[in-house]
Amino acid sequence: MIDPNAKVDPPAWSPWLPSSWPPYPAKVDDAFIETLRRIFQESILDEVDNVIADANGNLYHRGHVVGIALLCALDAVAYYGYKDELLGRGRRARKNKALSQFVAAHFPADYRPHGQAINKLYRNCMVHNWNLFGAAIESGNQKVKDTRGMLSFGLLNFRDALKAGIESFLVNLKTNVALQATALRRYKKLRSSAKK
């Protein structure tokens, strides 16, 4: 039986707990970029890869779960570099420019023209409706393609594109002042809002 009054040392740094992230830095440097790399890897990419591994290569009945996780991951990472835009005064709905801009700037070339479609046809439909209506996802490593207006790609291919996009973002973060300002602002907001 565990003694509820026993003193326990705090756990090692866990990137999925913003309250345990390193302090907000004054500027983007190699240490900050490595912190973001670790957060993205351990709390996003490794988590999704664990679900994929648990499926033993068969994503047929895990497509929605993996797809939603990947699209939410893209959404979360995109906000470190790009801002969203409100659709109108007092409205909660947003035009997710961050996701579209991230895809256009950082995903592999074959995905770049499809940022808006990925947001509208995939992210919005899967997250809010648990379904796809004007697009398709395959369970393997099929490349992104547009066949007479029907966009499709494989989950594993999209996962690899997200990984490549994250790496591209982190490389660009070293020199892009606009990305640096947005990344620092996002990091500070998340870390300072976390309960300690």
Task: Tell me about this structure.
The chain is mainly α. It has one domain (26-82, 96-187). The chain has six helices and five strands, in the order H-H-E-E-H-H-E-E-E-H-H. The chain has helices spanning 30-54, 63-78, 97-106, 115-129, 155-173, 177-193; strands at 85-86, 94-95, 135-138, 145-147, 150-154. The chain has a three-stranded mixed sheet. The protein has a two-stranded antiparallel sheet with strand order 1-2. Strand 4 (145-147) and strand 5 (150-154) form a beta hairpin.
| Strand-pairing-aware structural class | mainly alpha
Computed CA radius of gyration, to the nearest angstrom:
18 Å
Say how many strands there are: 5
Task: Report the mean per-residue pLDDT as an integer.
Answer: 83
Roughly how much helix do the residues carry, as a percent range?
Answer: 40-55%
Distance between the termini: 27 Å
Main β-sheet: number of strands, strand sense, barrel status?
Answer: 3 strands, mixed
Give the helices and strands as they follow along the chain. HHEEHHEEEHH
Strand portion, in percent?
5-15%
Shape: globular
Give the neighbour order of strands across the main sheet: 3-5-4
Poorly predicted regions are: none
Q: Tell me the number of helical segments per DSSP (H or I, 4 or more residues long).
A: 6
- Count of the domains: 1
